[in-house]
Amino acid sequence: MPVLEMIRTYPADITLDRDLMADTVSALIECAQACTACADACLSEPDLAMLGKCVRTNLDCADICDTTAKVLSRHTGYDAGLSVAQLRSCIVACDTCADECAEHAGHHAHCQLCADSCRTCSAACERLMDAMITT
Amino acid sequence: MPVLEMIRTYPADITLDRDLMADTVSALIECAQACTACADACLSEPDLAMLGKCVRTNLDCADICDTTAKVLSRHTGYDAGLSVAQLRSCIVACDTCADECAEHAGHHAHCQLCADSCRTCSAACERLMDAMITT
Amino acid sequence: MPVLEMIRTYPADITLDRDLMADTVSALIECAQACTACADACLSEPDLAMLGKCVRTNLDCADICDTTAKVLSRHTGYDAGLSVAQLRSCIVACDTCADECAEHAGHHAHCQLCADSCRTCSAACERLMDAMITT
Amino acid sequence: MPVLEMIRTYPADITLDRDLMADTVSALIECAQACTACADACLSEPDLAMLGKCVRTNLDCADICDTTAKVLSRHTGYDAGLSVAQLRSCIVACDTCADECAEHAGHHAHCQLCADSCRTCSAACERLMDAMITT
C-alpha cells in the first residue's frame, strides 16, 4: 500500500498510529476520485436534469476529501485542533454525499459505488478523529 | 469585482446576502494565493531550517481556503451544515497560519503580508458563518 | 493588488517581470473562480440537460487554472520547461471553455462572463509564455 | 481496484481502453500523495536547508498530478487536445520531480520512494498519451 510505505519513511515522531493514518488517507483519496467520477457520470446520464444537486454534492465531497487527505499527509508541526476541525467537515461532506447518492443508487451504479465509498471514508475519518481526541 | 459579478448571475435564490458571500470568497482566494506564495518565499530564505512549520501551516491554509472558496462558490442544493463545518475548519487554519507567520513577520515581509491576509480571511469567514447560523 | 504585493516580497531573483507574473496569476485565480461558479450556475438552470458538456469544460478549466496559478506562484527552483508546458495546457483549457460557454452566452449571463474571463486568462497566459520562451 | 470499478459504471462510450485509463488515474493519485508526503517529510529533515528546491518540485508535481487525475476521471465531452496537453505537462512535472528526488534518495528513503512513484506515473502518462494520439 503506497500511502503506508510513504508514512513509514517520515523522519520524525508521529503521535498517532501510522497504519490508522494511512488507512484514512487511502480512504480519502479513493473517495475523492469516486466523487469526481460520479459527478462526471451524472453529466452523461439521460436524466441529468434530476441530478443537479447530486453533482454539486459530489464536487464538494471531492474537494473536501482531497484537502483533508493533504492535511493528514503532513505531520510536521502537527496541530490536532486543525486536523479535527477538517475531519469534522469531511465527515459532514461524506455523509451528505452518501445520502444524496443513495437516492439515485437504484438507477445509477456509479451513485451506488460512490455512496459506498463515502460511507467507508466517513467511518475511517470518525475512527481517526476519535484517536486524535483521546490522544 | 469579478466574484460579485459572477454571483449576481446565479439563476436561483440564494438565502444569504450576495455581497457578503462575494466578499468572503474574494478573501479566501486572496488568502490561498498569499499562503502559496509565502510557503515558496520561505523555501528561498537563508533561514529555511527555522521555517519548516511555517511552510506546513501555509500549505494547509492554502488548501483549506481554496476548498472553502469552491464550496462557497456553489449555491445549488445549499447545505448550511456543510458550509458552516468547512468555515469552522477554515477559521482554525487561518488563525493558526496567522499566528505562525506573525512569529516570523519581523524578519520576513512575506510572513507579515500573509499573516494580514489570514486575519482578514478569518474575520470574513466569521461574519459569513454568523450569518449562516442565524439565517 | 494582493498578488503583486506578495510577489514583491519574494527574497531571491525572479528572471521574469514581477508585474507580468502577478497579472497572470490574478487572471488565473479569477478565471478559476468564474469557472467554478459557472459550473454551479449551470446546475441550477432549467435547461441543465443541455449543459453537461459545459459543466465538464468549466470543471477542467477551474482545476487547470488553479494548478497553473500555484505553479506560477512558486519561484524557488524555477523551471521554464515545466511552467511553459503547464501554460500550454492552461491556454487549451481556457480556449475550450471560452468556446463552449460562448455557445450558451445568449441564454445565460454566467456563461457570457465566464467566457470573457477565460479569454482574458488565455491572453495573459500567452503573454507570459512568450516572455518565458524568449527569456 | 476502486478507480476501475468506477470507470466501468460510466454510462456512455469511452473511446479509450478503460483499464488503461484506470491504471493511469491510479498512478496519478498515488504519485500526488507521495509528493505531498515527501514535501512534508523534507520539512522535518535536519538538512532542510538543502531541500528547498525538492519541496517546491514535490508541490508542483502533487498539484499537477491531482489536476491531471481529475481531467482524466471525466469522460463527458472528451477533448483529446486538452487531455494530451495536460498529460504532456504532467510528464514534465513527474520527470523533473523524479530527477530532483533521486539526488536525495541516498539520504532520504521518502525521496527514493517518491522518485519511484514519479517514474511509474510518468510512464503511465506516456502510455495513455500514445494511445490518445493514435486513436
From TrEMBL, chains A, B, C, D:
Organism of provenance: Actinocorallia herbida
Domain of life: Bacteria
Protein name: Four-helix bundle copper-binding protein
